[in-house]
Amino acid sequence: MLTELSIGVATAVAASYAGLCTMWPTSQLYGASFTGEARPSKRLALTYDDGPNDPYTGHLMEVLDRHQVKATFFMIGEMVEKRPRIAHEVCQAGHVVGNHTLTHPNLIFAGEAELRRQLERTQKIIDENACGVPRLFRPPFGGRNPRTFGIARSMGLTPVMWRVTCYDWSATESASIVKHAVRQIHGGDIILLHDGGHSAMGANRSCTVAATDELLRRYKGEGYEFVTVPQMMAPKA
């Protein structure tokens, strides 16, 4: 027979797990999201959040172009409004642009009306200045509540998370970013990086640019192929 103490412990554990899943990138508790393809796989997808960011999005595109690789950029609506030309250039270069909300709020605390406002406005900005097809959505900080992904899907947006966290937003050297990535990569992974910072334009992402170059050299040398998220999501022939 369960005691009050054991019931309390079980409740606390369940609540902690539920809380963890609001931010855990691979959790499917609050709705399905795409985090990568089945292993084993020799494909990887580079993704970049919080741009466009002047000048580092441009520097990053130079690295990707040198390696002949296309990536997926989850852009903040307000940042696209500030630098529409960069967003357009990302699209014209063959990269994919996804929706990362208008102002980068933590959506754990967002109601339906606010979520719809954030996504609708951002998608309109992306459609006008870059390219938003196929329509992808990534929540800021990975935060979501039980309704977030369902609402996004009802708006025609596919939720995309990740498996590999590189912690580049706080890195002071590229080697630490690469180390985090190598520790987690097993193939078929979506890799989270940042070309911008959600607080202001001009966030220093030089370490991310250098780490991207190193990761491309390393894994292409090991026979991996780098693809966009939509390419990874597409059924294999």
Give a structural overview:
This protein has 237 residues and is of the alpha/beta class. It has a single domain, classed as Glycoside hydrolase/deacetylase (TIM Barrel), CATH 3.20.20.370. 43% of the residues lie in helices and 13% in strands. The protein is built from nine helices and eight strands. The strands form two sheets. Strands 1, 2, 3, 6, 7 and 8 form a six-stranded parallel sheet that branches. Strands 4-5 form a two-stranded parallel sheet. The protein starts with a helix and ends with a helix. About 6% of the residues have low confidence.
Overview in brief:
With 237 residues, the protein is α/β, with parallel strands linked by helices. It has helices at residues 4-21, 56-66, 77-82, 84-92, 112-129, 148-154, 174-184, 206-221, 229-233, and strands at 43-51, 72-75, 96-99, 136-137, 158-159, 164-165, 189-194, 225-226.
